[in-house]
Model the fold of this input.
Amino acid sequence: MDPSAARYAKVSVEMRIGIVGAGALGSTLAELWTTAGHQVAVGEPEPEAASALAETLGPSVQASSVEEAARYGEVVVLTGAFGRAEMLPPASAVAGKIVIDATNALTETGEAIDLGARASSAIVAETFPDGRVVKAFNTLEADTLRAESRLSTPREKRFVVFLAGDDSRAKERVSTLIEEIGFAPIDAGSLALGGRYLEPRSKLFGRPLLPAEARRLLQMMS
Done:
């Protein structure tokens, strides 16, 4: 991320964000959101990776267990492997909270997991019935998120981060978190339908898109 980005970051409301997973995506989001002014807890089943990240990013990041990160955050972000039990906090830890599902239903070798007609995010929502699940941050590589933050750029010239969900207020909050790190939020619709638009092999997946092109593709897919 451009070191000068911090001077453009002005969060509307400072939040506590719990990130499950200290891999490429989790560490990138932790860096971007702490630069923007939020407080982050990163949770891992094994503490070493989270501790190393906290040491690198400074006092705005704390290392914790998966459950502790979920209980800490007002917003909880899932970045671990889809369906990996040790990367899922207890449902009680996210009750009433926004849960950002940034996972993809892929095997370790990158093959798509057959879920039939169901969206993976709908399955995540069933896992956390009292959470307010929003699908987001799963279509772009972590390196793209790190390199392409455009906080000083008008929204129509920023790359898009898509989101999908059934709770309009939760989507508004996630949209703000997207904007605060230099991207343009585009709503793909409900978890059931929009969630499928954001899955691997979709026309939207893995492509850095500007808002005008993103809207055009979404319209074609609808």
